[in-house]
Amino acid sequence: LNITNTLDTDTSIHWHGLLVPFQMDGVPGISFPGIPAGGTFTATFPVRQSGTYWWHSHAGLQEQAGHYGPIVIDPAGPDPVQADREYVLLLSEFSPLSPHTIFEKLKKGEGYFNYQQTSWTDDYPLTGKQRREWAKMRMMPTDISDVTGSTYTYLVNGHGPKEGMEFAFNPGERVRLRIINGSAMTLFNIRIPGLPMTVVAADGQNVRPVDTDEFQIGVAETYDVVIEPG
Ligand SMILES: [Cu+2]
């Protein structure tokens, strides 16, 4: 793979979850010097795995700014997961704020993006003891996400919720969804109302199938599910 950096700053590509020689791992200052502006880096590595993975920049805060993409590797032999069609769902966030501004705001006040803060007199159902425990941890009980929908728009394959994305299928088909959390800061809960999902792979590894109505996907995780939408 020849990677040419057309940015005006250093960049890198990290192959998240792929087992590669460290010189190819794409972490500037640790495993290689980075790719300078205008430079080309040749990544050569044997492909030892198959499944759903993703790549992202490991330079500065470029990942938050959109420098990422999916990786799907088909197995050399037959795939134990049989499906009639498949879609990649790469989940991420967009903010009109520069990631450096977001970082700066968090450094000054960890609750900057938390619009659900409690006060002493509100009716948030916490006892005095519980409040003291949270205070001891120096953490707000409503601190679910450091950065929230107050600045983020959540994306699927780069598209926002108002774009009405559709994923077509024919009646009776088994559809494999390769779901990747390419966000910087967000845990997503995945649910398709009224439709059970069978989890067949996690972080690129096939797993014994598990049926669920909902699952949570952490930052950088991938899950493959099979659905039969009707
Ligand atoms: Cu990563």
Automatic annotation (TrEMBL):
Q: Which UniProt keywords apply?
A: Copper, Metal-binding, Oxidoreductase
* Any one Pfam family match given in the protein's UniProt record, by short name: Cu-oxidase
* Single annotated GO MF: copper ion binding
SUPFAM superfamilies reported for this sequence = Cupredoxins (SSF49503)
UniProt domain Plastocyanin-like: residue ranges: 1-75, 145-228
Q: Which PANTHER family has this protein been placed in?
A: FI03373P-RELATED (PTHR11709:SF394), MULTI-COPPER OXIDASE (PTHR11709)
The name this protein goes by in its record: Multicopper oxidase domain-containing protein
Protein species of origin: Stakelama marina
